Amino acid sequence: MLTGTGTRQAMSAVAFSAVIVLAAAQGRAAAQSAQAGSAQAGRGAAEAPAEPGVTPAEIQRMFDSYALMQAQDQLKITDDQFPQFLGRFKALQDVRRKALQDRTRLVQELRVLVNQPQPDEAQMKDRIKALQDVDARAAADIKKAEEAVDQMLDVRQQAKFRVFEENMERRKLDLVTRARQANRKLQQQ
Questions:
Q1: Smaller CB count within 10 Å for the chain: N or C?
Q2: C-alpha span between 123 and 114 (Å, rounded)
Q3: pTM (2 decimals)?
Q4: For 105-132, how does the pLDDT look when each residue is reduced to its tens digit (9 = 90+)?
C-alpha cells in the first residue's frame, strides 16, 4: 500500500499519462474528423457529425492538476501547507493564463489591422497602447502572485519552485510536440 510521497508519485504518473493519452486522442479524433469530412465532402454531405474529444481547456486543467501534484512532491509541501499553496499556485496559473489570453487577443487584433488594405493607424496605435498596458499589468500581477507563493515557501523551496516551473514548461512543450507528431502520423495514414 502506498502512503504519502509514494501515493503522490503514483498519482502524478497516472495524471501525466492521462494528459498524454488524452492529447494523443484529441489529435487522433481531429485526424479522423478531417478524414471523415473529406469523405463526406466527396459524397456531397451537407454537414459533418459533431467532433467528440477532449478540449484544450480540459487538457490544460489536467496538466495543471499534474503540475500541482508534482509541485507538492518536489517542493516537499506538507499536508498543512497544501491548502494555502493550492490557492496561491492556482492564482499564479490563472494570472499567467489570463495575461497570455489578453495578449494573444490584442496581437490577433493587430494582425487583422496590419493585413487590411488600408490600415487605420489610429486603431493600430490604440491596440499597441492596449498591448503595452496589458504587458505592464500582467508583469505586475504575475510578480504579486509569485510573491504570494514565495511568502509561504522557505528559500530552498523558492529556488526549487523556479526550477520546477521551468521543467514543467518544458514538459508541456514536449507534450504538445508529441501530440502534434501523433496527429501528423494519423493524418498521413
A1: N
A2: 10
A3: 0.68
A4: 999 999 999 999 998 999 999 999 999 9
